[in-house]
Amino acid sequence: MSVQAQAIARHFGKACQSYSNAARLQRLTGYALLNRLPAEPRGCLLDLGCGPAWLHPELVQRCNSLLAVDLSAGMLYQARQSGLANEYIQADAAALPLASASVQQVFSNLMLQWCPKPAEVAAELERVLQSGGKVALSTLVQGTLAELRQAFLALQLSPHVNQFLTADALLLAMQQGAPAIDWQLHSETVQLSYPDVLSLGRELKSLGANYVPDKERKGLTGRHYWQQLQQAYPKAVGLKVSDSSAGSVTDTIIASYQVAYLTGVKR
């Protein structure tokens, strides 16, 4: 396992108990991705980047056997608590310890963006899929957390935000890595609201999604820092949400996520 993969695994391992409660975006994309799989049970399904396995009750209805794979031992420990998968495997998505042509379906929800070389992941998917097998995955592309990036730049700080591929570059990488899979890509913008920037930061941390390669946190804490970031964050003009705890209407911020859905069938 590479140094970067180990760092990613540590981040998600720390978030293994808080992940499910914070996974608002993951739930939206996960259920949208389910609709891109066959409704009837079909062979062996690989859940690649399974996390704490909160979607396994739905996935087991769409397959005859379920394999759960994750880079993080902590996430796999949480996943095992449900006991719905037939096997739990800790592995890098670019080096799967699975036999060639051994699965009929691959499901992967918001995992691919953590892989530095998506073409290598695509090659592994092509290898493990049987002919006629289907893959459905979601990932994040360029434009994700654009508002947060803008706030960092306004403060003349290096953006502590991941760099994501464009949708076109991602599709090209998948096509080059797995030419035997007929890929189709659909993208959409998902916007979530937050009371403030600190709440956004806490949610990302609870998901383990606050990891940025080569930009480990260096003093990015403290009330003054978060106040500055809040002031620099683009205002969500005209957007109000109900704050039930305070019994009042409170301004919120918006975070945009550019989601790409990739589906394909192996020839």
In percent, how much strand structure appears in the residues?
25-35%
Note the total helix count. 10
Low-confidence stretches: 240-249
> What's the alpha carbon Rg, rounded to whole Å?
19 Å
Strand order of the largest sheet: 3-2-1-4-5-9-6
CATH architectural grouping: 3-Layer(aba) Sandwich
Q: What profile does the largest beta sheet have?
A: 7 strands, mixed
Overall form: globular
- What is the average per-residue confidence, as pLDDT, rounded to a whole number? 90
The total tally of domains equals 1
The span between the termini is 31 Å
- Please provide the ordered H/E string of secondary-structure elements: HHHEHEHEEHEHHEHHEEE
What's the number of extended β-strand segments? 9
| CATH class group | Alpha Beta
Helix content: 25-40%
Short note summarizing the structure:
This protein has 267 residues and is α/β, with parallel strands linked by helices.
Spell out the blueprint of helices and strands.
Blueprint: H1 3-14, H2 19-22, H3 24-34, E1 44-48, H4 56-59, E2 65-70, H5 73-80, E3 87-90, E4 103-109, H6 118-128, E5 129-140, H7 146-154, H8 167-177, E6 181-194, H9 197-207, H10 223-232, E7 240-243, E8 248-251, E9 253-266
Parallel strand pairs: 1-2, 1-4, 2-3, 4-5
Antiparallel strand pairs: 5-9, 6-9, 7-8
Helix pairs in contact: 6-8, 7-10
